[in-house]
Amino acid sequence: MTTTIESLLDLDSLLTPEDLELRTMVRQFGEQRLRPNVTEWFEAGEVPVRDLAVEIGKLGLLGMHLEGYGCSGSSATAYGLVCEELEAVDSGLRSLVSVQGSLAMFAIHRWGSEEQREQWLPGMAAGEVIGCFGLTEPDFGSNPGGMRTTARRDGSDWILNGSKMWITNASIADVAIVWARAEEGVVGFAVPTTTPGFSAREMTHKMSLRASVTAEFSLDDVRVPDDAKLPGARGLSGPLACLNEARFGIVFGSVGAARDCLEATLDYVGTREVFDKPLSGYQLTQAKIADMAVELAKAQLLALHLGRLKDQGTIKPEQVSVGKLNNVREAIKIARQCRTLLGANGITLEYPVIRHANNLESVLTYEGTSEVHQLVIGEALTGVSAFR
Question: Where does the chain cross the membrane (predicted)?
């Protein structure tokens, strides 16, 4: 009997029956609803985000790790497993859930007022209201502290000016979480995108995350009332806490992309004949397969360990950085190696490998580049910040 990737280390024995049931449900949704269409969405650079958000909302996956307001309050591990299954189909689809739940909804849930939570979260959990998270700017990505977007008091209102770039779903969002610099430091706002002065345009010509909407938005004297401000957010710790939530999902999600690449490759090498025997029968092929399977299993174990730590409430930012740095780095290596085993077929969308590889180029960069996470880990180990 052939051992599968998932049975190699019997990792399912580390999951609860509830975790396994949830994973099966999301995997079936991916196979039946998403996978038959994702190649077309990727090639066209168009994805029906609003329709998908409602469908995913009905499954209870949007903001699932949050408590109340239509959110199920699931474990962090369960949320991670959902991210893994969605990214096994496509990173862009995991990004939809991650940005909605771990960035936009989390910002309101953690830093918002009770009125803001009641106003926005139930609709967002249902997928009927789309959110985006505006932190990155054209000149400030890894260094968000240098942001130029400003918030100025004007009587009982605030006036926002600036621009944000590489923002998932900004051109279709109903509410934008906007981080800006004010006299008292960095502050956050929940801004309805219908507010005069708010404009967004989709960014095209992407070769990665094509099954995801990426946009930039501008704030031209956008006037919002004081109750649009997120009262609990003080300084950069506000947006950085949100980023840590999103990074956690990537720790699991990247494993899904790598797993899908390896599963597709195992199927391919078992049927592709080279010099009159299956490609899988060659020592060089088996060496590559074995090395990739070992790295994938290690990444899965790391993700599960971090999930347990997060469920215990003891996880630290540098631990999330370890997971994001390692798992994405290994996932993209696996995708590239799988591409070599598929030969010329590896560059076509008939197989998922080149699509995952292209997507992982973005995943490697967003929510903190590899270099940023290396410095986070380095500072934790040495006690010395090397960011400047």
Answer: none
